[in-house]
Fold these 2 entries.
Entry 1:
Amino acid sequence: MEIFGQLEFPGDKSLSHRAAILAAMAEGESTIENFLWAEDTLNTLRAMELLGCEVKKDEKRKKIYLNSPGIKGWKSPREKIDVGNSGTGARLLLGLLSGCEGLSARIDGDESLRKRPMGRVCEPLSLFGAQFTPKDFLPIEVHGRKLKDIAYREDLGSAQVKSALILAAIASSTRLYLEEVCPSRDHTENMLRFAGVGISKRPSEQGYVMEMHPPYALSPRNYHIWGDVSSAAFFVVLALLAERGELLIRNVLLNPYRSRYLDILKQMGGNIQILEQKERCGERGGDILVRPSSLRGITIEPKDIPSIIDELPILTIAGVFAEGNFSFRGAKELRVKESDRISALVQNLKALGVEVEEYPDGLSLEGQSTRILKGNVQSFMDHRIVMSFEIAQLKSKSNAKTNEELVKIEGRNWVNTSFPDFYEKLNYLLNPQKPLEDTMAVVTFDGPAGSGKSSLAKKVADKYAFYQIDSGAIYRALTYLALKHYQKSELSQEEKGQFFEFLERNPLILSFNGQRQQLLEQNGQLFGAELRSREVALHIKGIADDPDFRHYVNKLVRQAAEKFPVVVDGRDMGTVVFPEAPLKFFVTATLEVRARRRLAEMADQTISLSELMREIAERDRQDESRPYGSLKPAEDAIFLDTTHYDLDETFSIVEAYLRQCPSRALQIALNREGKPNEL
Ligand code: CDP
Ligand code: CDP
């Protein structure tokens, strides 16, 4: 079995609920990108509308515009708030509204939600003056009050209870002191910090102590929701079990409470690389690269169970095809999910001829990589069971080298409840004829000085016979010439006019040497080391801030890119000069590391590290603050933080993105063996 491709996943549900609520709590317009378009999360949005927010939905782009009068401007909803099937929606709203003085609302849900306990949030909130009738099951009337200061010890390990208390304290402008005995998911805390509310959280003997005090000021924000890492699990395991290929997963949440299963798979020998990590709306996320691997069995510790509970079915399938014993205990809760998942796994595996030992809270089995499973299995009306056995089916077919369906799965349609394009994504990965879009063969590297962009660009140029353009050198040449003729780089209008006339008579010509590196000449004279002087660097601002000079540089650069496959570096290559480039990188490293690298390159080290750091920081500031062509990442740029990586390590990451880039023009350019100088 060979797989290849890159996948993205819909927005994470927990983050989507919270973004809708926090956006509504801040006065003004917030936006939410990659919002999960599902019944549960749309119901939470609807609740915010009923409270008085204006909501615009762009379904095609999965983007929400939410304009709020702020909590103080909310009014009691005209109709009941129906949260449908969402326990998170219900519990978060009960907490939030209980602290909104003078506001009354009725919260209701569907038949199944009406059976789930709400006392776990209403009881603790009542201790501080919140009023609910009744307190145990929906529908519940909540009458908002000014609450007393909240001091509570949370020992259920429930993120919903914790979040309800936090939101109630904010709505009511009261203090909060919370002891968290069994630490639970921390999305509410992370996202609140992003929205501008400081929560102090420090480790205690058993878990954490959290403290917060008014005034609380939430600000409108742009929430960008990471993809759901849990849905990715099926594809990660598929890629590990494949014989050849690689899978790149883009833009998924990497919060440790949610991506713990990746660590377990790594401990089983899985080749999983986190390529890029960055922060969005207070949460970490990024891209992961997965390659076929020989897996070994593992005993999963009970302490890990809470953070991998949803992934246990697919981890068990990984265990079936790993060498040696695979087992887990301490997962009693798995019996009360959409199905009794322990029993569902055991029954199905037995039906396929696998010997499994069942425990009240887990299972144990002997795995084998060459195993061929055969037989009929049931869905147990559970989407995760179906998807897990689908992966088992693909691996069995691959081991048996057959196209025949060996594992017959009854009830495949259950997949649709959570993952309507599951089969589409599988087909795409298994089918090597990927749809390719046509664009120009351009790779851009932007970033601050010393981050490593030109070194990476050179490596791409060398290995794949791309032409390398260094836009900074053109800014440097213009600065050098201005200094030569005017002894300054900030020119008056008149001087600028003269300078452009001079450039017209004596144009800068961009060409390439035998190694496809950029040459810059004027009147047959090549520019050289003089451009790299400190003097030039210190005066670049006058040129680089001027839109006319920027147009001049941009035109030269674009003309060169029309003829060849190019790799370019600069500050605004991905944002202004090549917004349509199929592959863009934004390279960074800490200021100190960048300055050290620069210092090491200097022949005369007459400048101290701290002085160089000051100069580079000043240039960063200038580059970031210019109104046109400023230094900033393109929205679709891949972040590369090179602080802790050497050039070869970073380049191997760049190569993974090159291989995976869906642009047809780029793939042709990368693979034009034998004729490197033609496109
Ligand atoms: O090599 P280093 O990163 O120090 O700088 P460079 O790439 O040679 O660029 C020198 C300066 O030119 C930068 O600090 C920017 O101010 C300017 N520049 C720019 O404004 N836009 C670009 N695309 C490239 C460089
Ligand atoms: O082009 P930019 O100013 O971003 O940086 P560069 O000239 O490519 O890199 C500056 C220096 O840092 C070079 O000597 C690189 O070899 C070195 N470097 C490194 O040590 N580790 C990296 N990951 C990237 C660059």
Entry 2:
Amino acid sequence: MKKDPAIVKLFAVPTDRWPGDALALGVYENGKPQKALARLGEGWAEEVDRVLTAGWLRGKEGESLLLSMAGGASDPRVLLLVGLGKADAITPLTLENVGARLVKAAATHGMAKLGCLISMDRHNGISPGRCVEHLAEGAWGGSYRFDRFKTKGNDSENGHQKTITLELAVKEKKMERMVQKLERLHHVCNGRFLAQNLGNLPGNLLTPEMLAAEARKMAEDLPIQVTVWNEKELKKNRMNGILAVGQGSSNPPRLIVMEYRQGGEGPLLAVVGKAVTFDSGGISLKPGAKMEEMKFDMAGGAAVFGFMHAIASMKLKVNCIGLVPAAENLPSGHAQRPGDVIETASGQWVEVINTDAEGRLILADALHHARSLAPDMIIDLATLTGACVIALGHEASAVMGFNKKMLRKLGRAGKRVGEKLWPLPLFPGYQELLKSTVADMKNVGGRDAGAITGGCFLSRFIDKKTPWAHIDIAGTAWDLSGKKPSQPKGATGVGVRLLCRFAEKELL
Ligand code: BES
Ligand code: MN
Ligand code: ZN
């Protein structure tokens, strides 16, 4: 992995004089600067007041203004005023975007080192400590680049990128703890970068076997045990769901299992992620428009990779197993057909009505395998249904499950890291939609409640006593809008932050 273009550090106020190029200070939409203005050197309060009264900056999100105080003993010499929006509307995402914009502003103005006082105050209930975290995440997130296929110098955006250091202000007393937090966060961000890198790779450059090779590579540097099942082993273990989805492609399927056990007698968490390296739909071929986006159909698996990487690098004292069924869904003379009936590893028979509902087939076998490892909780992540995007758009992932406590825990973790989850019900009535005339179930339930019937299908492969949650990330796994400063176009790495937070705080 490439080095981050943004370096995030902390500096202590008010004891330090600050030696960087400029200091950033927030302004709210009512035209008021944040309280930390009072900490600045001689003359700045009057100067900022003058500028704001003149209306040069109104404090709307996205606005910024560079002020320079010539001569005198003013410390700092240059101030970057940054719009924060309405004070009572600031969210973690606002701060993330501000963090990303700060790095961009520094680059635009040719600054190597930018300080930031925004983290000195509490914003809309978000403590200075958390503010540091959100700003840092945004700075890192916004500076992520996937430019592997851009020949150097060919693209002004990627040509000569220099490193920018962002220094965030914290109180002296809190310094030590914040440094630790920031370190932890950096591991999480790196895990997210890994998930994004994998997600952004196209189908020709990330086949199931190449994904397996990534896992083996990860095991070389980290205390993670990796097992990969090839077709022979999949056959031996009767994983006909994974095999059927992969049989149309000349890139054979794999089941990748990553084990990290550093939690002693503590609980075991199993995390399962769908990795369809490319989903054409198979014989039930998808329409051509936007089909290329189906290279992202392995985002669930990528999140599991990023998560395992993060917890192992931060040496978290937990037990986790990551399971990633990987296959490529293509039509060919070897492909499965609508009407085929397959026996999954669990012994349940499935009538394949639509070969485009392939994620649930590979997850069925992986969930069954997870179950055999006797975990205390199971979470699966999958870009499972277009219906989920219809229901929730790109704002939130859908979460389903029977265990209220589990759903609450996940909801809490998601809220804290800014990965929104919204519950959909798995009422027994929906299960009826999966009835098949010839087998135990069909793989599709029809147009109605598509995200829910996907969840219902999966629910048949877990044991009802183990808390389980299914997260449909179809609408959140990638973002090609370029609308969020902290999210460059492409894979989002959704799930990594959520799972890390969950493993750290909600496992017991
Ligand atoms: N990977 C797709 C789901 C998807 C579609 C995710 C668009 C993100 C954006 C999945 O394999 C799929 O094709 N699902 C079908 C299921 C249907 C046939 C029941 C779908 O959503 O159309
Ligand atoms: Mn599909
Ligand atoms: Zn798919």
